[in-house]
C-alpha cells in the first residue's frame, strides 16, 4: 500500500489520487498463497457463487406451476371440444331417427331418450379426468315428430389439478340442438 507521507509529498494532486486508487484496489485483491508466489488476482470481497442456485430454486417452482397449469387449461379446452362433439353426435343420432323412422325390415327405429343417452355414452371418447359425463337428452316439444327439436346436454366434472393450487373441479358443459328430419 502506498503511504501518503512518503510517496505523494510534493508531487501534486495526481499522486494523491493515485495513492487512493491503489488503496481501493488493494481492498479487492488477494495474494496467492504457497511457494512464495506473489501473483495478484482481482477478486471481489463478497462472492456471488451461490446466488444462481438460490435464483434457480426460487424460479423453478413458479415455472413448473405455470407449465403444468398451461397443460391443465389445454386439457380443459380439449375436454370441452370432445363433449361438444359428443353432444352433436347425439343430436344427429336423434334427428335421423324421429317418429317416422323405419328400418329396411319395416320395424320402427325411433330414437328415445334412453337410446340417445346410451348411444352417446358408448361413443368412447377419451375420458381424460376419470369421471363419467352426465348426459341429458330432451325433446323440448315432447315429441319425436319431424320438425321438432331435440336437445342433448352433456356436463362433465373435470378435475383441475395444478401444483401449489388446491385441487378443484370445473364443470364443463355443452349443449347441441337440432331438428328431427324423419
Derived structural class: alpha+beta
Share of residues in strands: 15-25%
Number of domains: 1
Number of DSSP E strands: 5
Strand order of the largest sheet: 3-4-5
Inertia-based shape: rod-shaped
Structure characterization notes:
The chain is an alpha+beta fold and 182 residues long. It has one domain. 40% of the residues lie in helices and 22% in strands. The chain is built from 4 helices and 5 strands; from the N terminus they run ααββααβββ. The protein has helices at 4-7, 13-27, 51-95, 113-121; strands at residues 29-31, 40-42, 134-138, 149-162, 165-179. A 3-stranded antiparallel β-sheet has the order 3-4-5. α3 (51-95) packs antiparallel against α4. The protein starts with a helix and ends with a strand. The mean pLDDT is 78.
Keywords summarizing the entry:
182 residues, alpha+beta, three-stranded antiparallel β-sheet, two-stranded antiparallel ribbon, 40% helix, 22% strand
Characterize this entry briefly:
This protein is α+β, with helices and mostly antiparallel strands and 182 residues long. It has four helices and five strands; from the N terminus they run H-H-E-E-H-H-E-E-E. The model has no long low-confidence stretch (mean pLDDT 78).
Amino acid at each position: 500500500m502506498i503511504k501518503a507521507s512518503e510517496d505523494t509529498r510534493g508531487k501534486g494532486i495526481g499522486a494523491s489520487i493515485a495513492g487512493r486508487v491503489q488503496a481501493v484496489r488493494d481492498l479487492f485483491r488477494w495474494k496467492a498463497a504457497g511457494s512464495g508466489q506473489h501473483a495478484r488476482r482481482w477478486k471481489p470481497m463478497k462472492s456471488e457463487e451461490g446466488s444462481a442456485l438460490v435464483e434457480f430454486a426460487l424460479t423453478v417452482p413458479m415455472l413448473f406451476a405455470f407449465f403444468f397449469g398451461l397443460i391443465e387449461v389445454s386439457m380443459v379446452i380439449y375436454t370441452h371440444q370432445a363433449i361438444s362433439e359428443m353432444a352433436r353426435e347425439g343430436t344427429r343420432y336423434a334427428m335421423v331417427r324421429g317418429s317416422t323412422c323405419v328400418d329396411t325390415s319395416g320395424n320402427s327405429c325411433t330414437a328415445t331418450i334412453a337410446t340417445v343417452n346410451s348411444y352417446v355414452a358408448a361413443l368412447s371418447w377419451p375420458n381424460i379426468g376419470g369421471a363419467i359425463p352426465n348426459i341429458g337428452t330432451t325433446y323440448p316439444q315432447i315429441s319425436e315428430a319431424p320438425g321438432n327439436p331435440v336437445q342433448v346436454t352433456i356436463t362433465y366434472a373435470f378435475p383441475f389439478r395444478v401444483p401449489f393450487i388446491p385441487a378443484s373441479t370445473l364443470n364443463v358443459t355443452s349443449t347441441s340442438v337440432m331438428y328431427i328430419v324423419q
